[in-house]
Amino acid sequence: MEPRILIRKDPVRWGILSSANIGVRAVAPAIRASSNGKLLAVGSRDRQHASELYAFASDVRIYEGYEAILADPDIEAVYIPLPNSLHAEWSIKAMQAGKHVLCEKPLAVTREEGEEMVQAAEDNQVFLMEAFMYRFHPQIVWALEQVKSGLIGPVRLVRASFSFDIRSHPENIRLQPELGGGSLMDVGSYPLNLFHAIYERSPRSVAARVHVTGPTSVDLATNAVLDYGEGSFGIMDSSFGLPSRQGAEIIGEAGIITLPVPFTPGNYDMTAFVTKDGQMTEQNFSGVDQYQLEVEHFAQCIRSKQDPRLSLTETLENLATIEAIYEAAGLDWPIL
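Structure tokens predicted for Oxidoreductase:
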């Protein structure tokens, strides 16, 4: 008889590094609402400010600085929403402290940094996953299943866009070169991630243009065409100077899947559309918290010791694609 493997049922104990807005408003509530996780502590450079932000969670420990989170033996996993330029440093420190790491996208500024993070995960036998929460939404899971099943035939073109306007906030970390800013690094990483999820490979080549304006030196807008071979392409655009907009269109030889709000649908009901044989049908999805689904998945991986859905191979290949786009556009990268 094979030995019975017992899976722990106690909730995974989380810590968060920094009082970044996405942590306060999205991920902390998601962890607290999750079925298999518990938020124990938050580390911040400004303890008083963090205490005020986390007033809704009076049971959460508030630490001064990030090191205290890593030193807390009760914490098993950390979520890292720090600026892009700090992802590698603090993820590696966390993994060396024996913590599993869910790190905001993009995982690193360069592929080389990403490889160092992956090596740290292997060396310390912990899980590391890039936090692309949209991949856990039922509409994306469904769309990828339809592509794989051949519903719309071989995919030949994917168009995806993501933008919002932050030109009136030059202090925003997304516009700071020393912090790894830029529209491609932020909203542009979503279309690239979607392309890889659909084609399951890296592009053979890319052509791109970026728009850099003002003193920031980061790309305010990026447009790229990616060649995935076999007559298959991806076309993406990202911008910090256009109205809030997003969308994705997956075009196969036999049909089209349209996702009007693929990346940040909120907790609202969503509808995807399939156009095939001259007919359009709808696929409806009830509102969910995709952040909660993400943290529950990661916690389940920790308890079951099964690899996360988003592989590190995919993550590294996407980091290489970001670098290739900047190179094709003639923008020196990284700008640090």
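Residues 13 and 265 are 27 Å apart (CA to CA).
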